[in-house]
Amino acid sequence: MAATAPSKPEGPTGDFTGDIEVSNKLPSKGDLDRAADMPVVDGSGKVHLFKSLHSSPDSPMRVLIIFIRHFFCGNCQEYLKTLSSLFTPGFLLELEPSTQIVIIGHGQPDLIPFYLKETNCPFPIYADPTKKLYHLLGMTRTLNMGSKAPDYMHDSVVVNAVKSIFQEFRAGRNMLKGGDIYQVGGEFLFEDGKVAWCHRMRNTRDHAEVSELKTVLGLDGKRPPMRNNSKTWVSGLGRALSNKRQSWSGSSSGSRKKSTAEPEKAIEDKKMGSEKTANEGYAKSTQIDQSRHEG
Fold first, then answer.
1. Arithmetic mean of pLDDT, 14-19
2. By the 8 A CB rule, do 14 and 144 touch?
3. Does residue 227 or residue 172 have the better pLDDT?
């Protein structure tokens, strides 16, 4: 019996140079309607409808859904670590309009707890192992790295590759469940159940830059708009600590001036030839030293 030829991968693929041509055109209403009832799975194995991530009664007004590559992709992990350092869930919820970031990968949901531990990602993570959402929303497949490293990456390609390999070994029996290495993702900003902005990756490092996300979210070069102009307790704590440090600094400065004044006087008296005053100064400085040791 003749061997069956492997099926051709779905979607466009590329080599390791250049970018894949993709469109950042917003998904059609028909595609969004079909995507709404697509299932995604959380780390505990619970199934959710895609629309519940961005249009449920409990959802914030804006939800930025980030589709990543496979769960062992070091580039995507760098991206999430950078975003986590800039946008905490609490900070995003205080924006006007309230905002949330949600992550979707296409590996098996069994790997989500492992992924959370490896990345310390504070955002909710789901899995679409069928990749149907990826295909329906127009995301492509490639192994292109692109010609330029993005600003969000702090480690080299080699370092990230080595990290990925070690993570796969640490994952044990789940090492083959990370997902399709060709499938790339993108970012979709939902407002009131509709996509207001999107970006599809053209290579394996082509997540939307942080500067672009800041512009999209209205945070570029401006003070983040907070609901009700509320001030967080963190700023108050910072001011209190600053005042305390100034108090400590003034106190210690005064102590240093006082402690050095008397030895200097003793030296001055010695120079003047007053043996009695010199002895008194020496005794006084000795007392100071003893008090320091006792303190």
1. 55
2. yes
3. 172
Q: Establish whether the linkage from the previous residue to 97 is cis, with ω within 30° of 0.
A: yes
> Does the pLDDT of residue 193 top 50, yes or no?
yes
DSSP-derived secondary structure letter, 226: B
User: How big is the CA angle at 225 (ends 238 and 200), to the nearest 5 degrees?
Assistant: 115
pLDDT at 216 over 90: yes
Buried b (16+ CB within 10 A) or exposed e, 135-150: ebbbbbbbebbbeeeb
Distances (CA, A) of 275 to 3, 267, 271, 283, 285: 110, 11, 10, 12, 15
Q: How far apart are CA 89 and CA 101, in angstroms?
A: 8
- The helix or strand, by DSSP H or E, that contains position 36, with its residue range, turns out to be helix 29-36
The single-letter code of the amino acid at 203 is N
The 3-state DSSP class for residue 254 equals helix
- Say if CB 226 and CB 96 are below 8 A apart: yes
Model confidence over 88-109: pLDDT tens digits?
Answer: 999 999 999 999 999 999 999 9
Average pLDDT, the chain: 78
Contacts of 216 (CB under 8 A, 6+ apart): 189, 197, 208
Question: Of 266, 134, 251, which Cα lies nearest the Cα of 188?
Answer: 134
Burial of residue 234, with CB atoms counted within 10 A of its CB: 0-12 exposed, 13-18 middle, 19 or more buried: exposed
Please check whether residue 110 is in contact with residue 26, taking contact to mean a CB–CB distance below 8 angstroms: no
Nearest-angstrom CA–CA distance, 127 and 40: 5
Q: How confident is the model at residue 221 (pLDDT cuts 50, 70, 90)?
A: low
Rounded to whole angstroms, the Cα distance separating 260 from 244 reads 25
Q: pTM for the whole thing?
A: 0.70
